[in-house]
Design brief:
The complex is a heterodimer of chains A (about 1100) and B (about 325).
Chain A (H helix, E strand, L loop, with lengths): L1 H19 L1 H22 L7 H5 L3 H31 L4 H4 L5 H33 L7 H30 L2 H18 L19 E2 L3 E2 L2 H25 L7 H46 L5 E13 L2 E12 L3 E7 L4 E7 L5 E6 L2 E10 L4 E10 L12 H5 L3 E2 L2 E2 L6 E3 L2 E4 L8 E2 L17 E7 L5 E3 L3 E4 L5 E4 L9 E4 L1 E8 L4 E8 L16 H16 L7 E7 L17 E2 L2 E5 L10 H11 L6 H14 L9 E5 L2 E5 L8 H4 L5 E3 L6 H10 L7 H7 L3 H11 L2 H6 L7 H20 L1 H13 L5 E3 H12 L4 H9 L6 E3 L3 E6 L4 E11 L5 E9 L6 E8 L4 E8 L3 E7 L9 E5 L4 E4 L6 E5 L10 E5 L6 E3 L7 H7 L21 E4 L10 E5 L7 E7 L4 E9 L27 E10 L2 E2 L3 E6 L3 E10 L3 E7 L9 E3 L1 E6 L1
Parallel strand pairs in A: 3-15, 21-22, 22-24, 27-28, 30-37
Antiparallel strand pairs in A: 1-2, 3-4, 4-9, 5-8, 5-14, 6-9, 7-8, 10-11, 12-13, 13-19, 15-18, 16-19, 17-18, 20-21, 23-24, 25-26, 29-31, 30-31, 31-34, 32-33, 32-35, 34-38, 35-36, 39-51, 40-43, 41-42, 42-50, 43-49, 44-48, 44-51, 45-46, 45-47, 45-49
Chain B lengths: L1 H13 L6 E9 L5 E10 L2 E6 L6 H8 L7 E6 L2 E2 L4 H6 L1 E4 L11 H11 L5 H14 L15 H13 L5 E5 L7 H15 L4 E6 L2 H7 L2 E6 L2 E6 L1 H8 L3 E6 L1 H10 L2 E7 L2 E7 L8 E3 L4 H13 L5
Parallel strand pairs in B: 3-8, 3-9, 6-7, 7-8
Antiparallel strand pairs in B: 1-2, 1-4, 4-5, 9-10, 11-13, 11-14, 12-13
The chains are: A alpha+beta (about 1100), B alpha/beta (about 325).
Chain lengths: ~1100, ~325
């Protein structure tokens, strides 16, 4: 009792001190204000409510505490090290040291005194969150989460950092040094090592996945407990060590050593837990590697395709029990065939009526050895019975570890990643989990056949656990014994099964025999609110969106159902290179994460409210509800997810990821199957071509990122053939862009001969003629050749395996208004030279002033070294010309020229068409010397002195992966930075070094070797990007031809020409917009190197100074 | 020889009175080699005990060892039968301590400071503790300032708060280190009186000081510590007695003044018409004429300090 009394006494007065310290007062006030602001902003209607927090209210305490935790971890260090410093400094402390309390009571009392104040602050913050939680609409209070997250996040963090600070203070004996060391540790864990070794060092739980689903609760609770337990034990260990180290004579010396012992026990316990935590992940990864090695071992064995599956599935509390009958066809003649079944599913029996069959099982591999060789094409019946759970390590074996371990974060909530669930109250199995025997193996590093999926007919009966509802594909019936029967009308590439406490909402469109349904967890019917005024219209709107998608894609939705199925928030999937389908999308079914938390449009009621608040235009409630529904439905139509703008070190970049709910796979990937062992990307290649996704470039995104996806792909293809890029997982993030570009490049040869639209129609028709069939890609190409005469098969090997990258010199298109006696026409002439030794195709689009749809597109084939001129004639005036160079060495790969001046001539209009030009005028003419900023030997820039931490940090923003940087027009770089823009000069790469205007201290210098003495006209290539301009790079010049263009914005550059000791007077040039070559002056120069200096000085209000190119023309 | 005599003297005196603290062969050597205490032996009786010595004599080291803030290098201390080495908790229960410097406080109010001290001394009954704290505040004259932050009290008030916290749990031993340093005369007298009142109870008070007046006004026994050793142990009267006949008043001319002051330890010098009236300590005057005067404790202190310095047998 006395012990407790002493501890509480010390704690009481330590708390008083902490609460009275200004530092804590300021911190707690700020913390309360931030928590208030956070809750107001994310939960209240007065702010901008975050759907995730309201949808899954366990995230409210989670998000709030994570926010607080990082800050309090820092403050706790200071305040807890303070007590030891204070005890040392205050002579009055000694009167407490002579009291009959033990060191342990004193230290524990002090710790508890500090801790309870912080815990109190946490509770206050949680109370604020709770008050907002209680008053927020469309949510409820998850009471237990408030306690659970408090215990999981706050308690271990505070104990650990306090204990560690105490020890550090006692060992270092200096508060300032302790603070610096501990702050360094916090910074290290937060920014450097926090995410290493599976978040082992993340003592704040900042990145540790701790999302708690309303359906399945925590995922990986054991890992979470071990992780948090590790820090809790370490914290207690450090506090015991503090008792040992505490500089006050103990009551009895031997007791001190007991505390050392206890401390060591806890610290070793912490190390043990840490080891166990890491071991768990490490053994998982080892196991995963073993699974891949097995696939490598058996991936080359013959495969059967399964034509039909008839499955009886019984849900167990810890998995499933399945009896499966399969009609399989041998794809090769063999005795042994390989199948894959999840290793946690134990096979009870395997039979093949009328055949002798023996089964060999090794983890996921199921080898069936028959008593005879099964001839290719023969079919046979197989029966297999198995039961068990799911080893999710078998899923996504092709995804690199790094991506598997990447954070899955939304706002500041970290989600664990789960690919399958089998809990007593919920089960989710997708084909990725291999919950039924699938032919062949999963990912193999040695074979490519694993990517291949085949169509199979499914017939499934499911006996769920009481009270649960199964959801799968196909027509649903309830059998006499209560089992639920699913019978898909069409063969599928895979079957998924979800069983939970589902409610269903659906409607039918009888005219097309179509059912639209939503399966949502009981109580998750939030979406019914907010659309009440258009209730009757909803079926029509949804069906119309489907038809609109069909029109856009020129493909038909092939299924009789479209079902949204809610799944727990931890469900995760990854984009693949060979298909656009992610596991989120299954045939006739789309998984929606719990409460659609990731879809901000899903909270209809709130969206309708927001629209009434923010939209200027007064729209009726019905209109707003229609808008909101349409917005939500757009989630299924968008190719990419919303661009993710990220600011780092003052620079903005854009990350774009594929939209997992994009419904194209329903129309294509689940309907058509072009397969090829040689070119495993065949199906996606055709899909990508038919999607025709590249209709332009978002220049704003491009300027921020530095390169468009096409250009990034093009740059990669300059160094690697497609086969290499597909095989190397390092490029998997960019494979989508590469395949898209390569698809356009491949089929451009067909378009060249048959016309773009016609050729695309032929391709589409051939594909559409073979729904739900496994078609060899080679057969498809043969049919294409027969229909069009275009033999793509011949090109395939080179296209796939060889680096073939042409480069072009692109002329400046000329627009002329030609008038003669008969007519007035607009004539546009453009010259392009292929200066490489490989053939190439460019796409030329002429836009007329009649609007975006008023345009004409041509493809131009250029043999190696060939120059061609295209003449286009129209009745309406041309507005702009866009030249896309597809796979090429050119940057930008999308050059746009706006016709701001049209010459007038009276003559005969030229014939339209493409003409070979024998002597290209696009090379730099004799007598002209051009030095571009790309000439590394002849162009240099100064580097500014970097002073101060902030500048050094900002400077690091320039560290980049590619040669060409992105930039923001509004925030130009502080040092010369290489960027591309079609407005800049360049023979192949239109680039400039740009910098923020300044005092003239930064200089770019061109060295121009002159062979002879004489008078030279010196020109500078001037271009100023238009403010506010977002699309189109503006008119560009080309290799060495004169400038032109619209007025644009006025710009100014300060240059100086020097040679030897001769320093000419500085010259200032003024120009408008895309001026092109602007005369700087005429100089008498010797036969020596001349220098042109451009400074970053600019009197005018310019955002960017661009060092581009200089030209010397001898008079 | 001299030390042996001293010890036997001490032993002689303690045999006739009760002993609350026994110090045997207490030695403290700091890591830098400084011998702060050199085998001290003391038997401290109940009542007010004065520990007198110049700055640097080792008083604070001895005090810090006695209050269990510091471990001695060698030796043994027993307080009311408890061995300081092994029974610190028991000793801390019966101990009240006022350190030498008592100025810098954590952000506690006067009342809180005392309450905290009371709590840590094992007073867990909150009502009793409250009344004890209030009574103690009354006693030391700080009741009116009970809600004032301790750091804002005057120097004297802080010292009173210090003694209050040392007394709050009614300890058997009270150790006060240089309690009157820096106090104005009025506060000093007030503080001494307070200690005297406390000493009337059945407690031992060890008053460590370098101010002779603190001892003379209140202590029944005392020790003189110099350079880590005990120069004298006994009652103040005994110390005076020993100094009798050793304090001289000498009148000298200006010419002889220098010689006199160089030769003998000087207690005071007063200028007179034709020279100086000088008080010195000496076994006997050699070459000067003077008269013995009745020594006070200050004289005795100088006598003992000087005796030790000159290796006299005292």
């Amino acid at each position: 009792m006395l012990v407790l009394h002493n501890i509480l006494s010390v704690a009481k007065y330590e708390s008083k001190l902490l609460v009275r310290s200004w530092f804590f007062k300021v911190f707690s006030t700020i913390a309360v204000l931030v928590a208030f602001g956070y809750s107001l902003g994310t939960l209240s209607d007065a702010g901008s409510p975050t759907w995730l927090l309201r949808a899954i209210p366990s995230t409210i305490p989670y998000g709030t505490l994570i926010l607080l935790n990082a800050a309090q971890a820092v403050i706790a260090i200071f305040l807890s090290s303070e007590f030891i410093k204070r005890d040392k400094q205050l002579d009055t402390s000694e009167v407490f040291y002579v009291r009959p309390l033990s060191n342990a009571e004193y230290v524990i009392g002090k710790t508890w005194g500090n801790l309870r104040v912080f815990l109190g602050l946490n509770l206050v913050i949680l109370l604020i969150a709770l008050l907002f939680n209680l008053t927020a609409s469309n949510t409820y209070v998850d009471w237990s989460s408030y306690l659970v997250y408090f215990l999981l996040i706050s308690v271990p963090t505070l104990l650990f950092i306090m204990g560690m600070s105490f020890c550090a203070m006692l060992l270092l004996n200096n508060q300032a040094l302790t603070f610096v060391v501990m702050l360094g540790y916090v910074g290290l864990t937060l920014f450097v090592i926090g995410e290493l070794v599976y978040h082992l060092f993340d003592y704040m739980a900042f990145s540790l996945p701790m999302f708690r689903s309303t359906i399945v609760g925590f995922s990986g609770m054991e890992e979470i407990l071990v992780h948090r337990g590790m820090y809790l034990a370490a914290g207690i260990g450090f506090i015991c060590l503090t008792i040992y180290l505490f500089k006050r004579l103990p009551h009895a010396p031997q007791r001190r050593f007991w505390w050392l012992l206890v401390s060591l026990v806890f610290l070793m316990g912490s190390v043990f837990l840490g080891f166990r935590y890491v071991q768990r992940y490490a053994s998982d990864l080892e196991h995963r590697q073993a699974l891949i090695e097995l696939n490598d071992q058996y991936g080359g064995l013959p495969v059967m395709s399964v034509l039909e599956y008839k499955m009886d599935v019984e849900q167990l509390s810890d998995g499933i029990h399945v009896r499966s009958r399969m009609l399989a066809r041998a794809l090769d003649s063999a005795r042994v065939f390989v199948f894959t079944l999840n290793p946690y599913l134990d096979i009870i029996s395997v039979n093949a009526p009328q055949e002798q069959v023996q089964m060999k099982r090794e983890q996921q591999i199921v080898l069936l050895e028959f008593g005879r060789e099964i001839p290719r094409g023969d079919t046979l019946m197989l029966e297999m019975e198995y039961r068990g759970g799911i080893d999710q390590l078998l899923c996504f074996l092709d995804i690199p570890e790094k991506n598997l371990l990447d954070k899955n974060r939304d706002n500041n909530i970290n989600f664990a990643k789960r690919y399958a669930f089998h809990k007593p109250n919920y089960l989710l199995l997708t084909p990725e989990s291999f919950w039924y025997p699938r032919p062949g193996t999963a990912f193999s590093t040695r074979y490519t056949g694993w990517q291949q999926s085949f169509f199979s007919h499914f017939d499934v009966s499911v006996k769920p656990l009481p009270g649960l509802v199964p959801v799968s594909q196909g027509k649903v019936d309830t059998l006499s014994d209560g089992r639920i029967h699913f019978l898909p009308e069409a063969p599928l590439t895979g079957l998924s099964l979800s069983i939970g406490q589902y409610d269903k909402l659906s409607f039918r469109i009888d005219s097309v025999d179509m059912e639209y349904a939503v399966y949502y967890f009981k109580g998750h019917d939030f979406f019914t609110r907010g659309l009440d005024s258009i209730k009757k219209e909803i079926p029509g709107i949804i069906h119309e969106r489907r038809l609109s998608l069909e029109r856009d894609l020129k493909l038909t939705y092939p299924f009789r159902r479209f079902t949204l199925v809610e799944v727990p928030g931890q469900f995760a999937a990854y984009a693949r290179s060979w298909t656009q389908a992610q596991e989120w999308t299954q045939p006739e079914m789309v998984f929606i994460p719990e409460m659609a938390y990731a879809m901000r449009d899903a909270e209809f009621e709130q969206q309708v409210k927001m629209r009434s608040r923010f939209m200027r235009e007064q729209r009726s409630l019905q209109d707003r509800q229609r808008d909101v529904l349409n917005n939500f439905l757009f989630n299924f139509q968008r190719i990419n997810g919303r661009p993710n703008f990220q600011r780092s070190r003052g620079q903005t970049s854009i990350q774009q990821t594929p939209n997992p709910w994009y419904q194209f796979p329903q129309f294509y990937d689940f309907t058509f199957n072009l397969y090829s062992i040689r070119w495993p990307v065949a199906n996606r290649l055709v899909a990508s071509y038919l999607q025709n996704t590249n209709s332009g470039v978002n220049q704003y995104q491009r300027s921020l990122s530095g390169m468009s996806p096409d250009e990034e792909a093009s740059v990669l293809l300059q160094e690697h053939p497609l086969s290499r890029l597909l095989a190397d997982t390092a490029y998997r993030d960019r494979v989508s862009g590469v395949v898209s570009l390569k698809a356009r490049q491949l089929f451009a040869y067909g378009e060249l001969l048959k016309g773009e639209e016609d050729f695309r129609t032929v391709v589409s028709n051939i594909v559409k003629g073979k729904p739900f069939q496994n078609v060899r890609f080679e057969s498809f190409l043969g049919e294409l050749r027969d229909s069009t005469g275009v033999d793509i098969l011949d090109r395939m090997d080179a296209w796939f395996n060889v680096i073939q990258v042409p480069r072009y010199i692109i002329g400046i298109p000329r627009a002329t208004r030609v008038r003669n006696a008969q007519e007035t026409r607009f004539e546009v002439v453009e010259q392009i030279t292929n200066s490489s030794d490989v053939e190439g195709i460019v796409k030329i689009s002429l836009q007329y002033s009649g609007g975006w749809s008023d345009s004409e597109t041509s493809l131009m084939y250029l043999a190696p070294g060939q120059t061609k001129e295209i003449v286009m004639v129209s009745e309406t005036d041309p507005r702009s010309m866009v030249i896309q160079t597809l796979v090429s060495l050119n940057l930008p790969g999308y050059v746009e020229h706006t016709f701001s001046q049209v010459e007038r001539q009276q003559r005969r209009v030229r014939d339209t068409g493409q003409f070979v030009v024998q002597n290209s005028a696009l090379y730099v003419p004799e007598g002209e010397i051009v030095v571009d900023n790309e000439d590394e030997d002849l162009f240099t820039v100064t580097t500014p002195d970097v002073t101060g931490l902030l500048q050094t940090w900002m400077q690091k923003a320039d560290d980049k992966k590619s040669k060409y940087s992105g930039y923001s027009y509004w925030r130009a770089p502080i040092r010369w930075t290489l960027v591309t823009n079609s407005g800049y000069y360049g023979q192949y790469v239109r680039s400039a070094h740009i910098i923020r205007p300044g005092n003239g201290s930064q200089v770019a210098t061109w060295r121009v070797p002159l062979k002879e003495r004489g008078r030279y006209d010196v020109y500078y290539y001037a271009y100023r990007e238009q403010e506010g301009r977002r699309f189109g790079g503006g008119p560009g010049g080309q290799g060495g031809r004169g400038g032109f263009g619209g007025r644009g914005q006025r710009g100014e550059y300060n240059l100086r020409i020097r040679q030897g000791a001769t320093l000419n007077e500085p010259a200032s040039i003024e120009f408008w917009g895309s001026a092109g070559w602007v005369l700087v002056g005429t100089y008498i120069l010797e036969a020596d190197t001349a220098y042109v200096d451009l400074t970053n000085k600019a009197e005018m209000n310019m955002n960017i100074v661009a060092a581009d190119a200089v030209k010397f023309v001898k008079r | 020889m001299r030390l042996a005599l001293l010890v036997s003297e001490v032993e002689k005196s303690v045999t006739i009175i009760a002993v609350s603290i026994i110090i045997e062969g207490l030695t403290k050597t700091y890591p830098n080699g400084n011998h702060a205490l050199k085998g001290i032996n003391l038997q401290i009786p109940p009542g007010m005990f004065g520990l007198l010595g110049p700055n640097g004599a080792g008083k604070s080291t001895l005090i810090r060892i006695l209050v269990a803030l510091m471990e001695p290098t060698e030796g043994k201390v027993t307080m009311f039968g408890h061995d300081l080495r092994t029974q610190k908790q028991e000793i801390r229960k019966i101990l009240g301590y006022l350190p030498q410097d008592f100025r810098f406080f954590a952000r506690y109010k006067t009342y809180e400071f005392l309450d905290y001290a009371a709590r840590l001394s094992g007073m867990n009954d909150s009502r009793k503790r409250k009344s004890a704290v209030d009574a103690m505040l009354e006693q030391v004259g700080l009741y009116e300032a009970r809600d004032r932050y301790a750091a804002r009290l005057s120097g004297g008030m802080k010292r009173r708060l210090g003694i209050a916290q040392a007394l709050i749990h009614e300890p058997k031993i009270i150790i006060v280190d240089e309690p009157t340093t820096g106090l104005d005369p009025e506060e000093r007298i007030r503080f001494r009186n307070l200690l005297s009142q406390v000493s009337a109870r059945d407690v031992s008070i060890i008053l460590s000081t370098h101010i002779v007046g603190d001892i003379s006004s209140s202590c029944t026994s005392m020790a003189l510590l110099n350079k880590g050793e005990i120069s004298f142990f006994g009652s103040p009267e005994e110390m005076l007695r020993r100094a009798e006949g050793k304090v001289w008043l000498v009148r000298v001319s200006n010419k002889d003044f220098k010689e006199l002051t160089n030769k003998y330890p000087v207690i005071s010098t007063i200028p007179i018409d034709d020279g100086w009236e000088v008080q010195v300590v000496a076994e006997k005057l050699d070459g000067f004429r003077g008269e013995n005067i009745v020594p006070n404790l200050e004289h005795a202190y100088v006598y003992f300090m000087d005796a030790q310095l000159n290796q006299w047998a005292v």
